[in-house]
Write a structure and sequence with these properties.
With 177 residues, the protein is an alpha+beta fold. 32% of the residues lie in helices and 17% in strands.
Length: 177
């Protein structure tokens, strides 16, 4: 793959929130989890866990624990990403334990970009930690990082939303010589 291919993918990736209700197949979801596995993680701890929520009742309860969640019911798949904070490297302590959680975010971006490459839309969904933690029966050492809703584009959704504007390049970097 060339830089131009990857640049095009990044340009085309956008948050897709409305879907055509056709469920995603288990194989499609597993394909995305397969590339999530390849993400970088602190000390290669791979602290992520992916809860693929197929159950409608559970999905509805999770929807109630999301920031803007009305669209989750129509999504083809819903994945909750959690972090196992006990997966610290053996015989080493982490310089910054929060990097376990950052690692999970890297995996989420793999999923979102991979979905776009497969012609599947998706968006990050902010989740309220407390209720989701108990709904998924997580242990004290696991934290909720976020949700990803995925699905097939509803016509028109492949276009950029108004929120797709970006700050200019010149404004976001400082070169230290
Ligand atoms: C940490 C994080 C939390 C987000 N939470 C939500 C959310 O709860 N609901 C939603 O519709 N989009 C959510 N988004 C998507 C952003 O709204 C979106 O990325 C932003 O508006 C830029 O649009 P774009 O992704 O189409 O470029 C979230 C994104 C991030 C990175």
């Amino acid at each position: 793959m060339t830089y131009e291919d990857f640049q095009k993918l990044c340009h085309e990736r956008r948050s897709v929130r409305y879907f055509n209700h056709k469920p995603m197949t288990k194989e499609e979801v597993l394909q995305l989890l397969e590339i999530a596995r390849l993400s970088p993680s602190v000390e290669n701890t791979q602290p992520w866990h992916f809860h693929v929520i197929m159950n409608e009742i559970l999905r509805t309860k999770l929807m109630e624990s999301s920031c803007y969640g009305n669209f989750v019911a129509g999504a083809g798949a819903f994945i909750v990403v959690t972090c196992d904070r006990m997966r610290s490297p053996t015989a080493k302590t982490l310089w910054n334990p929060r990097e376990l959680e950052y690692s999970c975010i890297a995996a989420m971006e793999h999923i979102l970009l991979g979905a776009m490459a497969m012609g599947i839309g998706g968006s990050w969904v902010s989740l309220h930690h407390g209720p989701v933690h108990s709904l998924l029966k997580l242990s004290a050492s696991q934290s909720v990082i976020g949700g990803i809703m995925l699905g097939r584009f509803r016509r028109g959704e492949e276009k950029a939303s108004t929120e797709h504007d970006r700050r200019p390049l010149a404004e976001i970097y400082t070169m230290h010589h």
